[in-house]
Amino acid sequence: MKTSDQTGSSETITSDEMRALEQAAIASGRVTGLELMERAGKGVVEAIFEEWPELVKDKRRAVVLCGPGNNGGDGFVVARLLEKAGWGVETFLYGDAKKLPPDARVNYELWLGRGGVSKIEVCYSYRWASHPVVVDALFGIGMNRPLPDELRNILMATLNCRRVAVDIPSYVSSDTGDLMCPWPHYTGQNQLTVTFHRPKAGHVMADGAQVCGKVVVKDIGL
Ligand SMILES: NC(=O)C1=CN([C@@H]2O[C@H](COP(=O)(O)OP(=O)(O)OC[C@H]3O[C@@H](n4cnc5c(N)ncnc54)[C@H](O)[C@@H]3O)[C@@H](O)[C@H]2O)[C@@H](O)CC1
Ligand SMILES: [K+]
User: Fold this and answer.
1) Which of this chain's residues are annotated to bind (6S)-NADPHX (predicted)?
2) What residues does 136 pair with on adjacent strands?
3) Which fold has domain 3-218?
């Protein structure tokens, strides 16, 4: 597992420490949650083009799977930035848009201005081969229970795509690296994981060290 660290230090931090850092930065007035989310989404898109430079000129199709929290919010930023770069982007939302947290809701609305959002159920019968890039923005450090089967089945169907996990694959616990659903251990190939500020234990420990594939740490100015 390689962590190409761009923030000068690669020791891991816990999800609680990350949340505390984010809240302190926001409380200090130095930055808003929305700015952090924009930087996170921008970091994911940068990492995609750094990892697969051939995708820069060859505009591709991407699918972004957005969850009910701020990880989903990052996904809507990624969708908007890829679409702005000329990509065909489809987004799917797991959860109720009306219940999205504020920063995620803003980015959901911003995305609506550029493209539609489908219910995640549409993915069950998807032809993934025509979508070489799938972005997993379902759950990040807020994942607190096993992944529902229907989401696991969707993610399993994308194994042959270029897979991009926002913050962490949604089936890996960020504090332990344990798999949060039955998941094959060999699936680190063509998996890019883009996390923020520092790696988390889940990127380097236990099964997470395998299934996270290439982990890139992007600075979001914390
Ligand atoms: N200001 C911030 O807080 C920032 C957050 N960021 C992103 O936000 C993420 C954390 O966002 P949240 O704290 O909203 O948490 P998540 O977006 O990771 O997920 C939380 C939501 O999913 C639900 N959930 C958790 N596990 C579930 C499961 N197994 N099945 C079904 N529902 C489940 C929770 O009830 C909650 O509604 C980070 O991973 C990162 O991607 C970044 O944008 C940086 C800034
Ligand atoms: K994720």
Assistant:
1) 70-74, 140-146, 167
2) 65, 165
3) Rossmann fold (3.40.50)
